[in-house]
Amino acid sequence: AQTVTQSQPEMSVQEAETVTLSCTYDTSESNYYLFWYKQPPSRQMILVIRQEAYKQQNATENRFSVNFQKAAKSFSLKISDSQLGDTAMYFCALEGSLGNEKLTFGTGTRLTIIP
Amino acid sequence: GAVVSQHPSRVICKSGTSVKIECRSLDFQATTMFWYRQFPKQSLMLMATSNEGSKATYEQGVEKDKFLINHASLTLSTLTVTSAHPEDSSFYICSAPRGGLPDTQYFGPGTRLTVL
Predict the structure, then answer these.
(1) Long-range contacts, stretch A3-6, CB < 8 angstroms, 24+ apart
(2) What pLDDT digit, counting tens, does each position of B31-42 carry?
Protein backbone atom coordinates (compact mmCIF):
# COMPACT_ATOMS: atom_id res chain seq x y z
CA ALA A 1 0.00 0.00 0.00
CA GLN A 2 1.10 3.53 -0.70
CA THR A 3 1.09 6.24 1.95
CA VAL A 4 1.74 9.97 1.88
CA THR A 5 2.44 11.96 5.02
CA GLN A 6 2.34 15.71 5.48
CA SER A 7 3.39 16.58 9.01
CA GLN A 8 2.59 20.29 8.91
CA PRO A 9 -1.17 20.90 9.25
CA GLU A 10 -0.77 24.68 9.05
CA MET A 11 1.91 27.17 8.12
CA SER A 12 2.05 30.90 7.68
CA VAL A 13 4.66 33.17 6.19
CA GLN A 14 5.07 36.83 5.36
CA GLU A 15 4.49 37.91 1.79
CA ALA A 16 7.66 37.75 -0.36
CA GLU A 17 9.33 35.25 1.95
CA THR A 18 10.22 31.66 1.11
CA VAL A 19 8.39 28.70 2.62
CA THR A 20 8.97 24.97 2.42
CA LEU A 21 6.24 22.37 2.81
CA SER A 22 7.30 18.86 3.70
CA CYS A 23 6.04 15.54 2.41
CA THR A 24 7.21 11.99 2.93
CA TYR A 25 5.84 8.91 1.25
CA ASP A 26 6.13 5.18 1.10
CA THR A 27 5.72 2.88 -1.87
CA SER A 28 7.05 -0.48 -2.93
CA GLU A 29 7.21 0.52 -6.59
CA SER A 30 10.49 1.39 -8.24
CA ASN A 31 8.98 4.02 -10.49
CA TYR A 32 6.20 6.41 -9.62
CA TYR A 33 5.14 10.03 -9.91
CA LEU A 34 4.82 12.70 -7.26
CA PHE A 35 2.64 15.79 -7.37
CA TRP A 36 1.86 18.88 -5.41
CA TYR A 37 -1.69 20.17 -5.80
CA LYS A 38 -3.05 23.45 -4.53
CA GLN A 39 -6.64 23.89 -3.36
CA PRO A 40 -7.56 27.57 -2.86
CA PRO A 41 -10.77 28.64 -1.12
CA SER A 42 -12.66 28.02 -4.36
CA ARG A 43 -11.96 24.28 -3.75
CA GLN A 44 -10.67 23.82 -7.32
CA MET A 45 -7.68 21.47 -7.30
CA ILE A 46 -4.79 22.94 -9.27
CA LEU A 47 -1.60 21.13 -10.23
CA VAL A 48 1.43 23.01 -8.94
CA ILE A 49 4.32 20.76 -9.89
CA ARG A 50 5.11 17.13 -10.68
CA GLN A 51 8.17 14.91 -10.48
CA GLU A 52 8.99 11.59 -12.10
CA ALA A 53 10.83 9.36 -9.65
CA TYR A 54 13.31 8.16 -12.27
CA LYS A 55 14.50 11.73 -12.84
CA GLN A 56 17.19 12.90 -10.46
CA GLN A 57 16.82 16.54 -11.38
CA ASN A 58 14.41 18.42 -9.15
CA ALA A 59 11.39 19.87 -10.93
CA THR A 60 10.86 23.62 -11.00
CA GLU A 61 7.95 25.76 -12.15
CA ASN A 62 8.64 29.47 -11.83
CA ARG A 63 8.52 30.24 -8.08
CA PHE A 64 7.82 26.62 -7.16
CA SER A 65 10.49 23.98 -6.83
CA VAL A 66 10.83 20.62 -5.17
CA ASN A 67 13.54 18.87 -3.21
CA PHE A 68 13.16 15.24 -4.18
CA GLN A 69 15.18 12.82 -2.05
CA LYS A 70 14.36 9.37 -3.40
CA ALA A 71 16.36 7.37 -0.87
CA ALA A 72 14.74 9.23 2.00
CA LYS A 73 11.33 9.15 0.26
CA SER A 74 10.97 12.86 0.77
CA PHE A 75 9.34 15.36 -1.59
CA SER A 76 9.24 18.90 -0.22
CA LEU A 77 7.83 21.96 -1.99
CA LYS A 78 9.57 25.31 -1.85
CA ILE A 79 7.65 28.46 -2.69
CA SER A 80 9.86 31.47 -3.30
CA ASP A 81 8.76 35.11 -3.17
CA SER A 82 5.41 34.04 -1.76
CA GLN A 83 2.33 35.92 -2.88
CA LEU A 84 -1.08 36.43 -1.34
CA GLY A 85 -2.56 34.22 -4.05
CA ASP A 86 -0.50 31.33 -2.75
CA THR A 87 -2.80 31.08 0.27
CA ALA A 88 -4.40 27.65 -0.05
CA MET A 89 -4.37 24.04 1.06
CA TYR A 90 -1.47 22.15 -0.45
CA PHE A 91 -1.68 18.42 -1.01
CA CYS A 92 1.19 16.10 -1.80
CA ALA A 93 0.15 13.12 -3.92
CA LEU A 94 1.69 9.90 -5.20
CA GLU A 95 0.77 7.95 -8.32
CA GLY A 96 2.11 4.52 -9.11
CA SER A 97 3.35 3.59 -12.56
CA LEU A 98 1.36 0.42 -12.99
CA GLY A 99 -1.28 2.09 -15.09
CA ASN A 100 -4.05 2.37 -12.56
CA GLU A 101 -3.52 6.10 -12.22
CA LYS A 102 -4.85 6.23 -8.68
CA LEU A 103 -3.61 9.12 -6.61
CA THR A 104 -2.84 8.76 -2.93
CA PHE A 105 -3.07 12.11 -1.15
CA GLY A 106 -1.50 13.41 2.02
CA THR A 107 -3.60 15.15 4.65
CA GLY A 108 -2.65 18.59 3.41
CA THR A 109 -0.96 21.72 4.71
CA ARG A 110 -2.93 24.91 5.07
CA LEU A 111 -0.65 27.76 3.99
CA THR A 112 -1.47 31.36 4.79
CA ILE A 113 0.48 34.21 3.27
CA ILE A 114 0.42 37.25 5.55
CA PRO A 115 0.40 40.67 3.89
CA GLY B 1 -5.25 23.43 -20.61
CA ALA B 2 -7.51 20.46 -20.02
CA VAL B 3 -10.87 21.23 -18.46
CA VAL B 4 -13.09 19.02 -16.41
CA SER B 5 -16.54 20.25 -15.46
CA GLN B 6 -19.00 19.12 -12.83
CA HIS B 7 -22.70 19.72 -12.58
CA PRO B 8 -24.32 20.82 -10.39
CA SER B 9 -21.87 22.86 -8.36
CA ARG B 10 -24.19 22.81 -5.39
CA VAL B 11 -27.26 20.76 -4.53
CA ILE B 12 -29.56 20.57 -1.55
CA CYS B 13 -31.93 17.65 -1.26
CA LYS B 14 -34.23 16.00 1.22
CA SER B 15 -33.29 12.84 3.02
CA GLY B 16 -34.31 9.75 1.08
CA THR B 17 -34.03 11.26 -2.38
CA SER B 18 -31.41 10.49 -5.01
CA VAL B 19 -28.98 12.97 -6.46
CA LYS B 20 -27.01 12.71 -9.70
CA ILE B 21 -23.69 14.48 -10.21
CA GLU B 22 -22.13 14.73 -13.66
CA CYS B 23 -18.44 14.89 -14.51
CA ARG B 24 -17.37 15.83 -18.03
CA SER B 25 -14.02 16.08 -19.70
CA LEU B 26 -14.48 19.01 -22.08
CA ASP B 27 -11.51 18.83 -24.41
CA PHE B 28 -10.20 15.29 -24.13
CA GLN B 29 -11.46 11.75 -23.85
CA ALA B 30 -11.10 9.82 -20.63
CA THR B 31 -11.59 6.07 -20.39
CA THR B 32 -11.08 6.39 -16.66
CA MET B 33 -12.38 8.95 -14.21
CA PHE B 34 -12.10 9.10 -10.45
CA TRP B 35 -14.57 10.16 -7.79
CA TYR B 36 -13.41 11.62 -4.49
CA ARG B 37 -15.12 12.75 -1.35
CA GLN B 38 -13.77 15.55 0.79
CA PHE B 39 -14.96 16.43 4.27
CA PRO B 40 -14.32 19.94 5.63
CA LYS B 41 -10.65 20.63 6.26
CA GLN B 42 -9.71 17.11 5.27
CA SER B 43 -7.98 15.46 2.36
CA LEU B 44 -9.52 13.85 -0.69
CA MET B 45 -10.63 10.26 -0.22
CA LEU B 46 -10.92 8.15 -3.34
CA MET B 47 -14.34 6.55 -3.57
CA ALA B 48 -14.23 4.75 -6.87
CA THR B 49 -12.69 4.46 -10.30
CA SER B 50 -15.12 4.93 -13.15
CA ASN B 51 -14.34 2.86 -16.24
CA GLU B 52 -15.89 3.58 -19.61
CA GLY B 53 -17.85 0.62 -20.83
CA SER B 54 -17.41 -1.49 -17.72
CA LYS B 55 -18.22 -1.57 -14.04
CA ALA B 56 -16.73 0.90 -11.64
CA THR B 57 -14.13 -0.19 -9.13
CA TYR B 58 -14.98 0.82 -5.59
CA GLU B 59 -12.57 1.45 -2.75
CA GLN B 60 -12.88 -0.55 0.41
CA GLY B 61 -15.71 0.65 2.62
CA VAL B 62 -17.61 2.45 -0.14
CA GLU B 63 -21.12 1.11 -0.70
CA LYS B 64 -21.54 0.42 -4.39
CA ASP B 65 -25.33 0.24 -4.10
CA LYS B 66 -25.45 3.66 -2.52
CA PHE B 67 -22.99 5.42 -4.80
CA LEU B 68 -23.89 4.37 -8.32
CA ILE B 69 -21.36 5.21 -11.00
CA ASN B 70 -22.00 5.14 -14.73
CA HIS B 71 -19.36 5.96 -17.31
CA ALA B 72 -21.60 6.21 -20.35
CA SER B 73 -19.16 7.79 -22.78
CA LEU B 74 -15.55 8.80 -23.11
CA THR B 75 -16.36 12.26 -21.79
CA LEU B 76 -19.03 11.67 -19.16
CA SER B 77 -19.19 9.90 -15.82
CA THR B 78 -22.06 10.22 -13.36
CA LEU B 79 -22.24 9.61 -9.65
CA THR B 80 -25.69 8.99 -8.19
CA VAL B 81 -26.12 9.15 -4.44
CA THR B 82 -29.14 6.98 -3.79
CA SER B 83 -31.47 7.39 -0.81
CA ALA B 84 -29.32 10.20 0.49
CA HIS B 85 -28.95 10.80 4.21
CA PRO B 86 -27.48 13.76 6.11
CA GLU B 87 -24.23 11.87 6.62
CA ASP B 88 -23.79 11.83 2.84
CA SER B 89 -23.45 15.61 2.91
CA SER B 90 -19.98 16.36 1.61
CA PHE B 91 -17.93 17.83 -1.21
CA TYR B 92 -17.62 15.47 -4.16
CA ILE B 93 -14.83 15.92 -6.69
CA CYS B 94 -14.12 14.08 -9.91
CA SER B 95 -10.89 13.88 -11.86
CA ALA B 96 -9.84 12.60 -15.23
CA PRO B 97 -6.35 11.69 -16.46
CA ARG B 98 -5.56 13.22 -19.79
CA GLY B 99 -2.85 10.82 -20.77
CA GLY B 100 0.83 11.14 -21.48
CA LEU B 101 3.74 10.67 -19.15
CA PRO B 102 3.28 11.38 -16.38
CA ASP B 103 -0.42 10.91 -16.56
CA THR B 104 -1.62 14.12 -14.99
CA GLN B 105 -5.09 14.24 -13.58
CA TYR B 106 -7.33 17.24 -14.04
CA PHE B 107 -9.94 17.94 -11.43
CA GLY B 108 -13.48 19.18 -11.67
CA PRO B 109 -14.54 22.15 -9.54
CA GLY B 110 -16.47 19.92 -7.16
CA THR B 111 -20.09 19.54 -6.06
CA ARG B 112 -21.27 20.45 -2.62
CA LEU B 113 -24.08 18.14 -1.52
CA THR B 114 -26.25 19.01 1.45
CA VAL B 115 -28.84 16.50 2.58
CA LEU B 116 -31.49 17.88 4.89
Answers:
(1) A3/A27, A3/A104, A4/A92, A4/A93, A4/A94, A4/A104, A4/A105, A4/A106, A5/A106, A5/A107, A6/A91, A6/A92, A6/A106, A6/A107, A6/A108, A6/A109
(2) 899 999 998 888
